[in-house]
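Re: weekly structure request thread

Next one in the queue (282 aa):
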Amino acid sequence: MRRATLPPIPADIATQRPLNLAELPDNHVAWLGHACFAIKIAGNLVLTDPYLSRTAGPFGFGPQRFLHPAVRSADLPRFDAIVISHNHYDHLDSKALRAYRWRNETPMICPLGNGALLSRLGFTEVHELDWWQNWSQAGLTIGALPAVHFSGRGLLDRNRSLWASVSIAAGERRIWFGGDTAAGAVFDEIGDRAGPFDLALVGIGAYEPRIIMEASHATPEEAITIARQIRARHAVGMHWGSIMLTPENPFEAPARFRKAALEQQYGASNAWILQVGEARGF
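Done, posted below.
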């Protein structure tokens, strides 16, 4: 696939304010970049899909990020749980996870077939979930839900492990984390069985060329449709602005996301675009 030249990086794509995740206010979400979020929900601190290294690939090969994450791997605080949606390198970053200092204390929640890799990275409490299964601890419930995607970290392991979207619930709050997904009717079922949600974290980047990507990544317009299907009150557009995985302009997605929110009567104020390093209450 031909790679496009990186356009000028917008000056306001990342906040200049320091981000202290250990002091993240309750019921706030902070974007570290790409699909990596720190979520403080009813007193629980949860991390999603930690890709924090420079390269999304093995042995230093693969696409390289052009925008630094908001927090370095070694500076991550202790989390109450870490969530992995699937095993692609830009979602399951071995280097970042090895640098995490609380691997013996932090539960790791992942779809089926990913536990062995996470155990090799030093995590001692790994919980594999099938779609529609939940894990709970101290008032925090994390569920694996369907997604339209695929898995694999090499030439011989395609779809040998499961991929998922994820529900994160505690107290009166519910968040849906999309991981990677294309559009699909399954999100109506998620809305009926697991919704509604206060917030959806939904991918809006890496969607061209459509003949290839339509089976695995949503467009910004489809992302709004997904948020509506799962009955999310607000939606954050993610999976853009840090790394060029596909040849579209990596900075065009936010405008399309907001425009789609208007056109689909979701409401422009309900379609959030965060700066990398920004935290916002939900």
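The first helix runs from residue 94 to 99. The longest strand covers residues 197-203.
Next request, please.
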